[in-house]
Amino acid sequence: MKLGENERRRAAVVVLGDIGRSPRMQYHALSLATQAHLEVDIVAYGGSDPHVAVKEHKSIYIHEMTQWPSNPRSLPKILRPLLLIFKPLVQFFMLLWYLCVKIPAPDVFIVQNPPSVPTLVAVKLASWIRRSAFVIDWHNFGYTLLALSLGRNSRFVVLYHWIEKQFGKMANGSLCVTRAMQHELAQNWGISATVLYDQPPEFFRPASLEEKHKLFCGIDKSLRTPYSLQDCLSNEVLTTGDDNPNVTLFTTQTHTDISLKWNRPALIVSSTSWTPDEDFSILLEAALMYDRRVSALLNEDDLKREDVFWQEIKGGKQYPRLLFIITGKGPEKEKYEQKIAKLNLKRVAFRTMWLEPEDYPLLLGSADLGVCLHTSSSGLDLPMKVVDMFGCGLPVCAVSYSCINELVEVDKNGLLFSSSSELADQFMTSIVVWGRVLVSQERPRSEDESSGDADAQIDMLFKGFPGECDELKLLKQGVLASRSSVNWATEWEANAKPLISKAKIMYLDGI
Q: What average pLDDT does the structure give for the chain?
């Protein structure tokens, strides 16, 4: 049977998760609608709003399933294995109802993996019932995520792995996110997959000065409100008495002229799902180290009058204040917010927030540095958040693991770290000069070099922030150069579209 016969011109995108927090599947839906000219049904949980381009597209229809309630902490341990069985059964029948009854029969189902159970089983059965092709987009492996909580030797993990592998082989086509994952699927799973690297869509770009000012005006009040102790941001409005709505922590508007403030804090952004596979304590420890090291380098007196102390910090005194804005939702957020509230930091401030989908790219496009704490459970996937940061021209410090170099190129678009100490070193260098001091610390010292000389070099390199940052500008240029060479639309056209068409032909020929 040929592709043109009995054409339905429809696709279904399946996510057993929050569609608003599944950017890659949103981009699939947009490409299916705009590049393949299909009607697209998204079947997923609600919770977070998808991007406005998805919500308002006339050919995309979102079907929100009822969210499974969060697992009660008071549940006795003896009953938890029953929950591991009951939950996927309920999800399985709910998926079947939506995929076989609630939506029109599609040409192809495209399903996000993980989660694998019961998603792959339900979609495979639905594809057989609806006579549709079945394509898996491998973001990671579900059994490795389950092993984080149960251990690799758990019987549930072994069974999960078997189901994921067997039903993965039944797909008519597979996409994956890295060459390392492609190799693993081919060698140990018997699955041939096409690599489709994550790429940012067009709305992830550097923000203009006007866009930055508008964003900062919108979030300025929350930025100036600390969790508990007074900090270097909340103190600014107290010491200056400046409550002008046209003046933010970063920008000033006079009539129609907008300018960046010379003593603004350095803005560092990190997006996290607040889960165990992202160790947020690394960032807290690194921030504490930065705060203590700067205080020691400047020989600051803790007995100094409070108002004088805050004024000196606001003035910069060679080392910038650091503002960390942490975005995202997840189970461990409250725990870390409580830890942040107990920190007594002078030059560092943390703020957590959840932004609208349209504001998140603006925040990335307005920042000085991105931090990624993602550590892959399989070691074979890449963090989408770094892709988004690169799309906005933002250099990144990322946790190092096996395949991260497929995305982050050291000294070209970012730096890698393995500990809080290494990340603190990068805070001391990267905001102004990035790799230069890091490299100088790693090379062997000559006998006449002393630690004092190194401190003097760091002190010299931080002078002039945020103006004279040539190395940072070069890194930003490197990020933008790589961004301009590829984009999601061209990658999807070259890799995903032919595979989806081929999967459908293979399925129809097999009927």
A: 81
